[in-house]
Amino acid sequence: MIKVIAACVIGAVLAGGATFMATSLATDSTATAEPVNETLYNYGDR
Amino acid sequence: MAIACEGGARGGAAARWAVRLLPWAVGLLAGVLVLGPALGPGYVLRYDMVFVPDLSLGTVLRGADGFPRAIPSDAVVAVLSLVLPGDAVQSLVLLAVFAVGGAGAARLVSRAPWRAVPAGGPVAGPFAWVVGGLLAPAAAGSAYVWNPFVAERLLLGQWAVLLGYAGLPWVVGATARLATARPAAGFAGLLRALVPAAVGGFSSVALTALTAGPVALRSDGAGGAGGARRGRRGRAGAGEAVPGVRWWGRACLFALALATVSLPWLLPSLSSGADTDPAGVAAFAARSDTPFGVAGSLLLLGGVWNSGAVPAGYGEPVTASVRLLLCLVALAGWVWWLCRGRPRFGTGLSAAALLGFALALLGATGPGRELLAWLIDLWPGFGPLRDGQLYVAPLALVQALGLGAFVRWLTGHRAPRGDDASDGPGGRHGTAPPGTGSLWRVGLAVFAALLPVVVLPGLLWGAGGRLAPVHYPGEWRAAQAAVAADDRPGAVLVLPWSAYRGPDWSGRPVVVLDPATKLFDRRTLWNDDLVVGTPGGGSIVVSGEDARAHRVAQALRPDPRTGLPERLDAGTLGALGVRHVVVSAPVDNQFWSGVEDLSVVVEGPDMVLLRVDEQHVRPNKAVIPGLEVTGGLVTVGAIIWSIARSGSSLVFQRSGPSAGSGARKEIPK
């Protein structure tokens, strides 16, 4: 049982680390700008 | 649950409860992680997602001209707002999307009759249900609610569509059970599963029809009466032979259930006479938001038309490539499950996913756009086909279930061949402890179950802060109260003459449908034309459906740059049935100053409320359509009947074969 739990923890830690890296990547990249037309607002921009 | 059944003898009640509650826990946890700050006090405003304090039920029911898109979703919100604050209702609704969706997908995997690991397998014995029985459903649940489809629709504010999406696994399960259940029991179970779609309205029901319709026509493993009898005996456990429902019977029951939950919007829409602008085909077609083109983006469950609804970092080559790998693994898992397990809904759901993918691609090609425009010209009811990316929802379910199957495979469980469930859902477990050499598969299974989060971190914690709650300024509440206190009839005209705003008080620039369109307890007149920007700097205008709004535009002739009329005239406004004019954005010129018989009731930087002298107002009589109310009552009555018939709630319904004599009471669905 302990081995199974250890394997689960390792898998979760790996996933957490990968998420952290991907989050950094997502933060560094420029999010798509909100489509704002200064006076009136579009429903959205393609 | 398969493994839990045997766990009943071994692990006892705790294990069964863990398996029973896990699907909901996965969905709730995902919901909390995604929504984060959005669950706090205040209203999350974003594109189509507009919640206001004290939403008026009467106003929702009276509605506007055109297609009743806000029915019944806004009506349900208005009813809930009678007992809860509006922001609490919003939090509940958003959280329900994740809880219901995650739980539904997880249960479809956990109820499947997997065969257990033979002794000496990678993970066997008492560990088997821990890794296989919990991880695989968790993977399916997380994948279903943590993907680009959910992210983009959430960022587009389409919570009602997401509610219907959340109900899809439940409807698929209930539809598959039509083949083995008595007709009345199957119908009642289907109605219960359709509750989220019923609340979601037209788009949700259309999505449900696409996803579960093929399942109704084709349920594997119970294709004929014999199969149905086998299934029924398995459920009843007493050799009771019940005539199965053939495919046409299932199709009729499915269509009847869909029609029943659609009555609130179906009846008024048939008499609305609304037209759908074919220009929307080009505006709302799927687009590429990854390096893999439109088809690749749709395969990854992204591709929404609006570039402002893409989560941060999603389209980056690295994350998109890992996402593509995850999709391929999930599809491989699905094929493995189809070949080895033949789930009853397998063929039907696969067909739905393919059909949906083809529909989503239609708008991305020239001939496809022409076909869609022709169809919409032919009948406005084809209008929802414009938003092609919507129809990858069945593929999202396939990929989620496929990831669950992949995790099952990793942990060494084998799907049964065909209808072979002779060893019971739980099967026979080996008693050997896990081999050290195979423990890496457990770790890999945990990693795979969390992979949906890893490849889409932009959805974390309010989608990186893009879903943040705000409070309505005091002037807005004052205007709402002033209009409510006025006992003279007449509509509210909303200016500037444009549907979407970027309110300064929302903290950061967020485009949202003007909340003033829902704030007041009477008919509002606003510009329901939709303007969509194109990559070249141009724009596409999709004409609205409100005929009265068109008349207002013709009478006021607002400046297309500012959305404001040059001047207001109380007589003109009164002739249009307008009692109040709301200016719900900061404007430079006070075009209302000096106008006779037009008084300022509330004035602030973001909100001005003007009142037209009552002598000018010729109000249009707005009534609540009897047909709409009747349809709603029939739907509510049918849902109450289905719940009463089960003697239970959604939480405790079984969706799969009985786990055996040690299982809890079987409640047909």
UniProtKB/TrEMBL annotation, chain A:
<keyword id="KW-0732">Signal</keyword>
<feature type="signal peptide">
    <location>
        <begin position="1"/>
        <end position="26"/>
    </location>
</feature>
<protein>
    <recommendedName>
        <fullName>DUF2613 domain-containing protein</fullName>
    </recommendedName>
</protein>
TrEMBL record, chain B:
<feature type="transmembrane region" description="Helical">
    <location>
        <begin position="190"/>
        <end position="210"/>
    </location>
</feature>
<feature type="transmembrane region" description="Helical">
    <location>
        <begin position="292"/>
        <end position="314"/>
    </location>
</feature>
<keyword id="KW-0472">Membrane</keyword>
<feature type="transmembrane region" description="Helical">
    <location>
        <begin position="127"/>
        <end position="146"/>
    </location>
</feature>
<protein>
    <submittedName>
        <fullName>Uncharacterized protein</fullName>
    </submittedName>
</protein>
<keyword id="KW-1133">Transmembrane helix</keyword>
<feature type="transmembrane region" description="Helical">
    <location>
        <begin position="388"/>
        <end position="407"/>
    </location>
</feature>
<feature type="transmembrane region" description="Helical">
    <location>
        <begin position="320"/>
        <end position="339"/>
    </location>
</feature>
<feature type="transmembrane region" description="Helical">
    <location>
        <begin position="247"/>
        <end position="267"/>
    </location>
</feature>
<keyword id="KW-0812">Transmembrane</keyword>
<feature type="transmembrane region" description="Helical">
    <location>
        <begin position="21"/>
        <end position="45"/>
    </location>
</feature>
<feature type="transmembrane region" description="Helical">
    <location>
        <begin position="158"/>
        <end position="178"/>
    </location>
</feature>
<feature type="transmembrane region" description="Helical">
    <location>
        <begin position="88"/>
        <end position="106"/>
    </location>
</feature>
<feature type="transmembrane region" description="Helical">
    <location>
        <begin position="442"/>
        <end position="463"/>
    </location>
</feature>
<feature type="transmembrane region" description="Helical">
    <location>
        <begin position="351"/>
        <end position="368"/>
    </location>
</feature>
